[in-house]
Amino acid sequence: MNQEPSVKGRFISLRVKLLVGFTLLFSVVFAIAFYWFFAFATDMALTKIEEDMVTTLYGAIEGIDGDVFAAMAREAESRADGLTDDPRYWEHQAWIEIVHQLEPRAYPYSWVRGDETVENEVLFIGDILRRTYPENATVFREPYITAGSMITGMQELWEDLEPYEDPWGHWISAYAPIRNAAGESVGGLGIDFKADYIYQVQSAIQNRVLLSFTVTYFVLFIFVYMISRALTRPISSLTDMAREVAEGDYEQDIQALYGGKYRDEVSTLARVFEMMVNKVRAREEGLKRQVQKLRIEIDEAKKARQVAEITESDYFQTLKQKARELRQQAAEDE
């Protein structure tokens, strides 16, 4: 029995290759789809929050009389506790609280320009935190050096849509100018808007997609396993048959691999393999007959050579001569 030739390299079955290949392909496709959906949902949530924030901001500005606001900010006197007894201030604070009640995610505050000799200085006027979180609130006319965004917000709409975090949550901000009857900017109104909804959406996507991915991954794995098994089973059978043929057993039911209603590459390979096996068997049988015939011819030639060696030997010639003499003597005696 011939041994199978050694083959270098590690054997990896076609089924494993299909499983790994399809799994990696699905992982890449899923990662791309997840990233796109995650970014799309985040953008949609951020866009919705931005629309709500800007709408609330402009609605709040509509309720502020710019001339009254400017006069109050200029004329009101501060108390020892940092507030003021000016009724215009408390009307302004009441309106800010109404805005917050209508839109609980919005935390409005207002300011005016500070000392113009100090770069980017503003003075806080109204602040919703004075009622909700007084320990964290600014005082009336408290100076603040801004990075420039609040100064810009006194001239046009300014938005910070990159969510930032503090101990109270995640926020985005927007500023817009407060104008008097002449259309001149006399201050600014800002709104810090809760952006926790964005992270809630992201968390929901991650949790739900992870569950969907796990279930889909399991189903896909079973599906690919079944497909790979259906694809590799006839190839494995053909391999076993080829091994048996190599051992000299030509009685293999190869027709079972291509006898179905539909044909494919495997059935074509099986048909070709059957043709090859039949030809190999015919050649082997022909060789056996030739070897048998040659063996007979060799035996006959060997016998003839042995006979010739005997008849041509001196001893055989001597016996032949004696036999001839005996026959002559017997003839003479008669």
The CATH fourth-level homologous superfamily of the largest domain: PAS domain
Please give the count of helices: 8
Mean pLDDT: 82
Residues in helices, as a percent range: 55-70%
Overview of this protein structure:
This protein is an alpha+beta fold and 334 residues long. It has 2 domains: 30-202, Beta-Lactamase; 265-327. The chain has helices spanning 14-62, 66-75, 87-102, 129-132, 149-153, 196-246, 265-311, 314-333, and strands spanning 106-113, 121-127, 142-145, 158-166, 169-179, 185-194. A 6-stranded antiparallel beta sheet has the order 3-2-1-6-5-4. Strand 4 (158-166) and strand 5 (169-179) form a beta hairpin. Helix 1 runs antiparallel to helix 6. The chain is rod-shaped.
Which terms would index this structure?
alpha+beta; Beta-Lactamase; 6 strands
Summarize the structure.
The chain has helices at residues 14-62, 66-75, 87-102, 129-132, 149-153, 196-246, 265-311, 314-333, and strands at 106-113, 121-127, 142-145, 158-166, 169-179, 185-194. By secondary structure, it is α+β, with helices and mostly antiparallel strands.
Task: Record the SSE blueprint.
Elements: H1 14-62, H2 66-75, H3 87-102, E1 106-113, E2 121-127, H4 129-132, E3 142-145, H5 149-153, E4 158-166, E5 169-179, E6 185-194, H6 196-246, H7 265-311, H8 314-333
Antiparallel strand pairs: 1-2, 1-6, 2-3, 4-5, 5-6
Helix pairs in contact: 1-6, 6-7
